[in-house]
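Q: what does this look like with adenosine-5'-diphosphate bound?
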Amino acid sequence: MNKSSRTKKKPLKENYQLKERQKIEEEVFDKRTLLHISKIMKKGIISNLDYPVSTGKEANIFKATTPSGANVAIKIYKIMTSPFFRKQKYILGDSRFKNIRWNEREVVYLFARKEFSNLEICEQAGVNAPKPFFLEGNVLVMSFLGENGLPYPQLIQTVCKECFLDAIIQNIQKMYKAKLVHADLSEYNIMIAKNKIPYLIDFGQGIVLSHPKAEEFLERDVKNILNFFKKFGFTRDFKETLNKIRT
Ligand SMILES: Nc1ncnc2c1ncn2[C@@H]1O[C@H](COP(=O)(O)OP(=O)(O)O)[C@@H](O)[C@H]1O
Ligand SMILES: [Mg+2]
């Protein structure tokens, strides 16, 4: 008997599962990300990382539990497959982020920091958005928007659309007053709570008003939202809405 026939081969399915698992672990939980998570646990911010609620291109969102048993959301920005390199225009020109080292990990950390900072501005300004709790590298801890461990639906998944339109515009206005533009607003980045309150999420691209393209991005946000509602027959005048937001 030769050596290779003696070593037991893994069944194909098991091999495939192992490869997939490795892929997921490498993409989401690279070594340094694991260190960040363990630091967050040691600090007593969370006691358990429970399960993923969303896996996206740029980040994965998990539900986690705090030592007192409350739910929180953890956003883990992906390092390996990050498309943020293409998004430098959202950083260059934002006066908060000067003298940046442009390596991949630093860029991803920067977007996490940016989202955290934007969520802080939202909290101060009374904008409906997740409350930022903690940031460690590419791992952001925030309030969990959901019920029974399940996230609220996105705007696109809800039925009664019109009831949210004015509230969304009001939130954009509050942000603008706080000198912030979301810059990636769409029916996917708005979650609708049980009590019909819309929450804006995904603030990594958010920029301050001094950014040279702030007004352009605001107009794009408003256009996205109005176009979405228009499909359901709910219309608002674009110019009037912008004026309202800017007053
Ligand atoms: N704070 C949160 N609480 C509960 N679920 C969330 C929270 N933030 C995001 N999610 C869920 O994760 C999804 C993706 O989040 P998002 O921040 O838009 O990341 P990305 O679009 O970059 O993947 C959301 O549509 C929502 O289902
Ligand atoms: Mg999103």
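The pocket of magnesium ion (ligand 2) is lined by residues 188-189, 202 (CB under 6 Å). The radius of gyration is 21 Å.
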